[in-house]
Design goal:
The structure holds two protein chains of two kinds. Chain A is of the alpha/beta class. Helix content of chain A is 31%, strand content 17%. Chain A is globular, with a radius of gyration of 26 Å. The chains are: A alpha/beta, B mainly alpha. The interface between A and B is medium-sized, with 31 and 32 residues.
Chain lengths: 470, 186
């Protein structure tokens, strides 16, 4: 007592109390911070991934396209990040779709062409999100070979179609809804799939959702809904000067199977893009009405590009820019602080799976070959990749040889199977339309050795192997 | 009808059609290098139209030419098939080195490969009708039958096969073909 009664006693007590107060307050704050952090980490955003078919990266009005009007995709780009250098590692429907789902190159997931079947042992990002507590749905085009539809794990709802070899048809396309074949008379497929997607979004649930909405549009057939038919019948298409309407009938293009004059197909394509945009708008509006839009990561992408007369070509597959570039937009206001940015970093279809898992706070498995785009979404200054590998395997009966290519920020190097076509090297900065092969020029020779080494390096690190069949 | 020399009744019609195909293909290919938009389009349209006509419909003309130069039925078939077969060989050459030998042979059943000579046969069958009509009525060859057995069989068979291939916009045959491909090669 004497001690406490000493003149220093009250002071000591005050100091003691202050220390106690400091620590207890600190403890509480620390605990709150931990809780907040955990809460943040545990707040799984909803995920809506919309995949289209053959939609070119520049066939949108915000890209200055001379014909199509896409107000909803424009809005998505305005409110999110538009990746202006987004590519596919294989420019073909099935391999690209499998790459989106698995985060892997075609030579890894095994769907190397439109004929090689999906391996049910492949793990999709949807399956991993399901394990993390998500309600999941796959609605739309599957289009990978196999015995009917695959046994996809981790799906609460699986709606797809097998008509026309899995390509589907624009009107009256029968759907397989959770295993039950269902006729859809009078339905236009893009609208039908959107209806089902909205139905899934509207379901009451405690868990976040992951919706994979995969459209047939705007694949060949190019049939718009009735109200858009003829929308661009008189439009000046402004196709490239080297193109003509007969391209679809010449240069082995008949094997692609689009035996109509190209310009007529292109008008249908543009009208079908508008229809796709309308339906995307419907989904976005419904998310808004349900007050879910800002809690939802919305990603829009195409599965590959498309030639419309450039290089005298139609279709895709080759390693030129028109074929390998895709539209890729991410809207997620909780992370993106500078909406409307055009990210220049090179991103790939194999980046989707790691990105979505990363944003959902799910640990990334080591077999992913893509990279999370979360840092780029958060900061414009985040570095992107320097180079990446493009691969294409022969798809019977298309007379295009296997292709390996390296795309760096500035150059592109393309090798063909058995040297069936001359090896190509393009300086994309000086020659963005890839008109001049510089491989035998002094400038080309300077780069060649390094870029060949880069290809070897990329092949080695990705475990590349060549597939002769498909 | 006067039976002209082999060169005139067979080689000339073949060369005529082949020449038209080669020339029009060259014009079409060259059009891509022409920067003037109007000239580019004119050359592209002209080249393409003549190219397709010579390959797919040329038998209508070549058969008529050979018929009135006295070529026999077998010779006329040769005349009609020459250009489509050359075109098929050109197309097939684009596949060399890409696919296996088995796949290469399977390509022969692809509707563009097998379809081309079949359409030529159909065209020959059609042109035989008017050739025979003209020969009977115009030239007074009353012994010539408009629907002779060989021509009727040719017409019927080619018509059935072409129709089957084009059924459902060609999709049915294509998916059948690709299904067979998958079973055989994958």
């Amino acid at each position: 007592m004497t001690v406490f009664a000493s003149p220093d006693g009250p002071l000591l007590t005050k100091v003691h109390r202050a220390i106690q107060y400091f620590f207890s307050t600190g403890l509480i704050l620390w605990a709150l911070l931990i809780c907040a952090g955990l809460a943040a980490a545990q707040t799984h955003p909803n995920i809506l991934f919309i995949l289209s078919d053959d939609h070119r990266w520049d066939a949108m009005s915000h890209m200055g396209h001379p014909v199509v009007q896409t107000p909803n995709l424009d809005r998505l780009a305005r409110q999110g990040i538009f990746f202006s250098n987004a590519f596919v590692t294989t420019s073909l429907c099935s391999p690209s779709r499998a790459s989106f789902l698995t985060g892997q190159y075609a030579h890894t997931h095994g769907v190397v062409t439109n004929h090689t079947p999906w391996d049910n042992r492949n793990v999709t990002f949807i399956e991993l999100l399901k394990k993390a507590g998500y309600a999941t749905a796959f609605i739309g085009k599957w289009h990978m070979p196999g015995d009917g539809l695959p046994r996809l794990r981790g799906l609460d709802r699986f709606v797809s179609f097998t008509a026309e070899g899995g390509q589907g048809i624009y009107y009256n396309c029968p759907l397989i809804i959770d295993g039950v074949a269902t006729d859809r008379p009078g339905k236009y497929i893009t609208e039908d799939l959107t209806d089902l997607a909205i139905e899934f979004i509207e379901q009451k649930r405690d868990a976040p959702f992951c919706l994979y909405l995969s459209h047939k549009a705007v694949h060949f057939g190019f049939r718009p809904p009735p109200h858009l038919k003829g929308l661009y019948k008189d439009a000046d298409l402004k196709l490239p000067p080297e193109s003509d309407t007969w391209i679809t009938f010449t240069n082995n293009h008949p094997f692609v199977g689009a035996l109509f004059p190209m310009n007529a197909l292109y008008r249908g394509y543009c009208e079908t893009v508008v229809s796709l945009d309308e339906q995307i708008g419907r989904v976005l509006r419904r998310l808004e009405e349900l007050d879910l839009i800002d809690d939802t990561i919305v990603v829009y992408a195409g599965d590959n590009g498309h030639f419309w007369g450039e290089h005298g070509l139609y279709d895709k597959r080759l390693a030129y820019e028109e074929s390998i570039r895709i539209p890729f937009i991410v809207r997620y206001p909780k992370l993106v602080r500078d909406p409307g940015r055009r990210a220049e970093q090179m991103v790939l279809n194999i980046d989707l799976a790691p990105t979505l898992l990363d944003l959902a706070g799910v640990p990334l498995p080591n077999y992913f070959q893509g990279q999370s785009l979360k840092p780029i979404l958060a900061s414009a200054h985040s570095p992107g990749r320097e180079a990446w590998l493009y691969e294409h395997f022969p798809v019977f009966p298309i007379p295009i040889p296997g292709i390996s290519a390296v795309r760096t920020r500035r150059y592109k190097y393309i090798e063909y199977q058995n040297n069936l076509r001359p090896t190509e090297l393009f300086d994309l900065r000086l020659d963005p339309k890839e008109k001049t092969n510089i491989i035998d020029t002094p400038a080309g020779e300077q780069i060649l050795e390094n870029i060949e080494k880069e290809m070897e390096h990329l092949k080695k690190t990705t475990g590349y192997r060549y597939f002769t069949h498909g | 009808m006067e039976r002209q020399s082999y060169f005139r009744r067979v080689v000339v019609p073949v060369l005529f059609l082949l020449g038209a195909m080669i020339l029009s293909t060259l014009v079409y290919d060259l059009s891509r290098g022409v920067e003037h938009p109007v000239i580019h389009q004119i050359l592209a349209h002209a080249g393409a139209i003549f190219m397709f006509s010579s390959i797919w419909l040329g038998a209508l003309f070549a058969n008529t030419m050979a018929f009135f130069r006295g070529a026999g039925f077998g010779e006329r078939m040769l005349v009609c098939l020459a250009t489509p077969l050359v075109w098929c060989l050109k197309i097939l050459s684009g596949f060399i080195g890409i696919y296996s030998g088995g796949e290469f042979f399977f390509l022969l059943l692809h509707h563009f490969i097998i379809g081309c000579p079949l359409v030529a046969m159909l065209c020959m069958g059609i042109s035989e009708i008017w050739c025979r009509l003209i020969a009977r009525k115009g030239h007074g060859h009353r012994s010539i039958r408009i629907f002779a057995l060989n021509n009727s069989l040719l017409l019927l068979l080619s018509l059935v096969l072409v129709t089957l291939m084009l059924w459902n916009g060609g999709h049915s045959y294509y998916y059948l073909y690709m299904d067979a491909y998958s079973r055989l090669f994958l």
